[in-house]
Design a protein that fits this description.
The structure is a single chain. Among the domains are: about 40 residues, no CATH class; about 140 residues. It is about 75% helix and about 0% strand. The chain has 28 helices and no strands. By secondary structure, it is mostly helical. The longest helix has about 90 residues.
């Protein structure tokens, strides 16, 4: 069909008609071109597998896009035509769906493809060249990560970040690896597994990284996260099935090696077997180039789990149950996946050790020879010298072989193999200690960096808090100072007015002398003071000022009326009409005036209670209440303001 579309384009360009279009001569050329263009577009849409994914979430097409784009890992990494085709289809998907995410998907695919092409050359070039290639690769992925953040393509951001982490771990750049690992862990925690199913896989791989450094506690936490997130996903129909089995297997090994807890170790291996029994091979996606992927991996994990259970039986001394399980695990590891030779070697040597203990030396030698054969094969696969490829398995091989020859009485060969075991152990420990030391240094640097960042955050936070507090304190002090000054001014004004009032004749000044009797007759009828009221009030006022009767706390209207030889009703009416106040208020004002004068003279010998009794009050509370009602200040406030007042004239009591 592509040929037909191309042929039509050529014919149209040359204004010719091919025999295929002979029956279309009556149709205008532009109509023919339109029909063929639509037809070709329809064919292209059918051939483009990404178009149907355009409206889906990543979780729904993750397995399919992985199978399409990255299947060339074994067969087509150098197929430039395949890469070009995939990129064109991804760009077409972006154009049709109007979603920039598919452009990023294309860019990410190109970067990874370029990396895989260069990876094959890494064994032939210097470390400095490898570092340069990885730096370029790192920068390209960082650009993709920044663009992914802008359009919220979190799945591409996480995949790119994970690949950077993997690359630096492989290159043994542990400082960078740890830094990116921390970023990846933080971002994964914010994304639900329902939206990003690779979450379980990433946690498992991070656990394996720490496990390789014997950081069991940290590895355990990542494996547990992997299991938790894989359990949430529909693991029976997903690649996550193998992630959870990896995490379960590693946890089983941690409980065996770190905690010496064989019961819990067995439990994790049994969980793997339970999952395998429930799994349906047909539901697990397999790459097109490896259709038996699911079946082989289920069988492999069955072998690994049973082999590890066999090792636990061996450690308990239960050889009869250990042998069939170890045999099963050894055979599956050796036949299904050539990368699992170290596992098969360990199981073969464990079997050999069992038969040495049982003094069945022929069978013991058989498994020793098998282990040696696989060690040599693995050495060729990894292109390494003896001990360098897998020093711990070489160590185990020489230890078991030494036991074998010692049991046969051949001490010379036993000694030689024991010496080789010590050498292999030294090689292993040198590599391990070097890695451990380097890892510790990088971890320390990372911790110091984290502390520095936290300190900066703390300092900044404290600076903000202190600055805010200082600002508010300054505002408060300014406000308080202003209000305090206003209050002092107001208090001084009250004191001044109270002093002026205390020396005034305010009550008498309120009433002028009547011009004639008619006015007072009229006032008597209107409730205003008459001439008789005024004379009686002046007489009372003169008596209070000369004899200071108000100082008597027991004085009342009856006593005062008898002393003045007048009717108390007339006296009360005169006070009320002339002052507008009752007798009690009138007499208290005399007392308050004298109290003001006493306080103004700053007589410190007299207490406030003494002044109250001196001026005629028999109750301190009544004195306080009456004083504040008249002056607006309490007696103590009045004394304090009077003492500090700039104006300190001397007042006398008339």
């Amino acid at each position: 069909m592509t040929q037909i579309c191309t042929l039509h384009a050529i014919c149209k360009k040359k204004h010719l008609f091919c025999p295929l279009f002979a029956k279309m001569k009556s149709i205008p050329i532009f109509l023919t071109a339109t029909i063929l263009s639509l037809f070709c577009w329809g064919v292209s849409a059918q051939e483009n597998p990404f178009l149907k994914m355009a409206k889906e979430d990543f979780v729904n097409y993750r397995d399919e896009i992985t199978n399409i784009l990255y299947r060339q890992g074994d067969e087509g990494k150098d197929d430039s035509l395949f890469v070009t085709k995939m990129v064109d289809q991804l760009y077409e998907t972006a154009k049709v769906s109007k979603n920039k995410k598919w452009i990023l998907e294309a860019d990410y695919f190109v970067v990874l493809n370029n990396y895989h092409r260069n990876f094959a050359k890494f064994k032939e070039i210097k470390q400095s060249q490898i570092d340069s290639i990885i730096e370029i690769f790192d920068n390209d992925l960082q650009k993709i990560i920044r663009q992914a953040k802008k359009i919220n393509a979190f799945d591409i951001e996480l995949r790119a970040l994970y690949f950077i982490w993997c690359t630096h771990c492989w290159n043994k750049d542990y400082n960078t690896c740890i830094r990116y690992g921390a970023q990846l862990d933080k971002k994964l925690s914010a994304v639900p597994v329902a939206q990003f199913p690779d979450k379980a896989l990433y946690y498992t791989e991070m656990g394996k990284f720490y496990y390789s450094f014997y950081e069991y506690e940290k590895a355990k936490s990542f494996f547990e996260k992997g299991i938790e997130n894989a359990t949430i996903a529909p693991i029976m129909q997903s690649f996550a099935l193998f992630s959870i089995m990896q995490s379960l297997n590693s946890l089983g090994l941690i409980y065996r090696n770190q905690y010496n807890d064989l019961e819990n170790s067995d439990a994790y291996f049994h969980k793997i077997l339970e999952i395998i029994m429930k799994a349906n091979v047909q539901d697990i996606p397999s790459p097109e180039h490896y259709p038996k992927y699911a079946q082989d991996h289920l069988e492999l994990w069955e072998g690994l789990a049973k082999g590890n259970l066999g090792t636990n039986h061996f450690l308990r001394g239960d050889y009869e149950n250990a042998i069939p399980l170890l045999l099963f695990g050894m055979e599956k590891a050796a036949t299904i996946n050539r990368h699992n030779f170290p596992y098969a070697i360990v199981k073969a040597l464990t079997l050999s050790e069992i038969f040495i203990t049982k003094k069945e030396f022929k069978q013991a030698k058989q498994y020793i020879d098998k282990a040696y054969e696989w060690l040599e094969e693995y050495k060729k696969q990894t292109n390494t010298t003896a001990f360098k490829g897998s020093p711990n398995t070489w160590e185990m091989y020489h230890k078991v072989t030494s036991l074998y020859y010692h049991a046969l009485g051949n001490d010379r060969l036993a000694f030689l193999h024991n010496d080789s075991a010590v050498f292999a152990q030294r090689v292993y420990e040198e590599e391990y200690n070097l890695h451990k030391l380097f890892y510790a240094e990088q971890l320390h640097k990372q911790q110091e960096l984290d502390k520095e960042i936290e300190l900066k955050k703390m300092y900044y936070f404290n600076f903000i808090i202190i600055s805010t507090f200082a600002f508010l304190l300054i505002v408060f002090l300014v406000f308080y100072t202003i209000m305090y000054r206003k209050k002092r001014i107001a208090y001084r004004m009250l004191v001044r007015k109270s002093r002026e009032w205390a020396q005034s004749e305010e009550v008498l000044q309120n009433f002028a002398t009547a011009e004639n009797n008619e006015t007072f007759i009229e006032d008597e009828q209107n409730g205003k003071p008459t001439e008789n009221d005024r004379k009686l009030f002046e007489q009372l006022n003169h008596l209070f000022k000369t004899e200071q009767l108000y100082r008597d706390p027991n004085i009342n209207l009856d006593k005062l009326a008898k002393q003045m030889a007048v009717n108390k009703n007339y006296l009360s009416r005169a006070i009320n009409r002339c002052t507008g106040k009752n007798f009690s208020t009138y007499i208290n004002e005399f007392r308050i005036k004298e109290a003001i004068l006493l306080l103004s003279k700053n007589i410190q010998k007299l207490s406030l209670e003494g002044i109250a009794f001196e001026t005629g009050f028999n109750d301190r509370r009544i004195f306080y209440r009456a004083f504040k009602k008249v002056t607006g200040l309490s007696p103590s406030e009045f004394r304090r303001v009077s003492t500090s007042s700039i104006e300190s004239p001397k007042y006398s009591i008339e």
